[in-house]
Design brief:
By secondary structure, this protein is mainly alpha-helical. Helix 1 packs across helix 3. The radius of gyration is 16 Å and the shape is globular.
Length: about 140
């Protein structure tokens, strides 16, 4: 019974997120980023979307979700995990973070910089700026 309630609550949270919050950032595809797909492909992203939804629609659950997202953020940073889902998770955490949350913000930007430099520009040596614009 509890599992069904949690599944229903996650689905409702995702629908609200995509209806009300995603249009501001246009970061997620509502067709691709279903509850099942996100949960399987990137649990950190799943946690961040649930956290963002709880901030607005389930404020009593927000502190626990935020703590879980922060703990996962530190683990992802420590383990050097890099993927598009992780980058999206960090973006989601940045958009809906608390104003005084500077430590997590530092980890987010540092990790994004590392991901960009190591994954997206591996063969940057010898390319001109014009080539980089076309390459992107």
């Amino acid at each position: 019974m509890l599992c069904r309630f949690v599944e229903h609550a996650a689905d409702l949270n995702f629908r609200r997120f995509f209806l009300r919050l995603n249009p501001f950032i246009c970061l997620f595809d509502p067709v691709l980023h279903s509850v099942d797909h996100v949960r399987k492909s990137c649990p950190f992203l799943f946690t961040c979307i649930i956290m963002a939804g709880c901030k607005f629609w389930k404020p009593h659950l927000y502190p626990a979700c935020q703590q879980l997202a922060h703990d996962t953020c530190v683990k992802v940073f420590a383990n050097g995990v890099k993927s598009i889902g992780i980058v999206q998770s960090f973006a989601c955490m940045t958009y809906w973070k608390e104003p005084d949350d500077q430590v997590c913000l530092f980890l987010i930007w540092l990790t994004l910089m590392i991901v960009i430099l190591t994954d997206h520009f591996p063969r940057i040596h010898g390319r001109t700026l014009a080539m980089l614009v076309v390459w992107r």
